[in-house]
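Hey, can you fold this?
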Amino acid sequence: QGSEEAKAFVNAFLKRSMPKKKDEAIQDILTRKAVVLEHYSKKRTKQKRKKTKGFTAKQRREMRLFEIEPEQQRYTIFLPLHELWKQYIKDLCHGLKPDAQPQMVQSKLLKADLHGAIVTVTKSKCPSYVGITGIILQEFKHVFKIITKEDKLKVVPKLNNVFSVEIDGFISYIYGSKFQLRASERSAKKFKLKGTTDL
C-alpha cells in the first residue's frame, strides 16, 4: 500500500479502536508515536435462568404421586425394606454393640430415616390406635403411613401418640407430638433426650 493509503488505514483503525477520542487527540498520539489501543466490548445482557419449579401440593395430589396402589399394599412386599432399614441403623450406630450407650442410639434413631422401620403405637389419646404395629411406608410432617401384618394400610397421626421402635432388643420411644417434622428436617433438629409423659 502507498503511504497515503497506509495513513488512511491507520487513522480509520484508530478511530474504531478509540471511538471516544477526537481526531486531534488521535493525531497528538501519533506524533508522540505512542499508541494505546483499547477494546470496547458490547455489554451482554445476562439472561435470567428460569428455575425449574416442582409440582405443587395440589398437582401431586391430582397425579396421586404418593398413593400406594391396593395391589401393592401387602406386608410381605415391604419386609426386604425393613431388613435394609435394620442394616442402615446398624451402620449408623456403629454395629449396635452391647456396650453401646442407649443415649447415643436414641439420638441417632431420632434423626434417622424411619422408612422401613417396624413401629408400634404404645400410647394414644385415641384408644383405637393403641397396638397398631407395622412397617412405616411413608412419613409426612403430621402422619405415618403404616402397613400392618394384616395387609392394611393405616394412616396414624403423630399428634397425641407415642410410638416404640425395636431393633436388636433396643427399644426407643418416639413422642409424636414432639416429632411433627418432615424426615428431611429432623436431621438438623436437636431433640431433648429426656422423655416426657405428655401425649
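Oh, and this one too while you're at it.
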Amino acid sequence: MVCGGFSCSKNCLCALNLLYTLVSLLLIGIAAWGIGFGLISSFRVVGVVIAVGIFLFIIALVGLIGAVKHHQVLLFFYMIILLLVFIVQFSVSCACLALNKEQQSQLLEVGWNNTNSARTDIERNLNCCGFRAFNPNETCFSDCFRSHQCQPCAPIIEEYSGMVLRFVGGIGLFFSFTEILGVWLTYRYRNQKDPRANPSAFL
C-alpha cells in the first residue's frame, strides 16, 4: 500500500492526534507540577494552561475517534476547529516573533500592573522587587527584601523576554504547521473510501 492510500492517511492522522494528546497531557502535568512545588501561585495562569491542555485533549480525542472510525461528521468538525486554531496560533506566533524590545517592555509593564499573583511569583523566583525601581515601602516576597538591597525586576525580565518570546513563537509556529498538515490529511482522508468497508456505507 503506497503512502497516498487509505491506511497511510489513517495512520498519519492517528499519529498526529496521539502527538496532540501527549502535548495536552504535558501541559496539564506542568501546570500541576508548578502548583505542587509552589513555583506558581497564580490560579489564573494555571487555569489558562490547564484549559488549553483540556481543549487540545478534546480536539485530539475527536480527531482520533474520527480517524479510527472514519466518521465523516467528527472529521468535518475536527478539520474546521483545527483550521481555526491554526489561524489563531499562526497569528500569535508571528506577533511574538515580530515584537521589538520597546513593545516587549510595554507589554511586560502592562502585565506587571494587572497581575498581582504572577508578580509575587516573579519577585520570589527572580529575587527582585518592583518593576522599574525598588521601593522599600511596598510589600515584596523576595528574600532580598529583608536586607532592602533588591534589584528591580524589569531588567531581569527583559533580559529573558526576547529569548522566551522567540522560543514560544518558534514552538507555536512549528505546531501551527502540524495543524495545517492535520487539516490537509483530514480533508484527504474524508474523501477516501475504506477498501474493507461496504461501498454503500460510505456517505
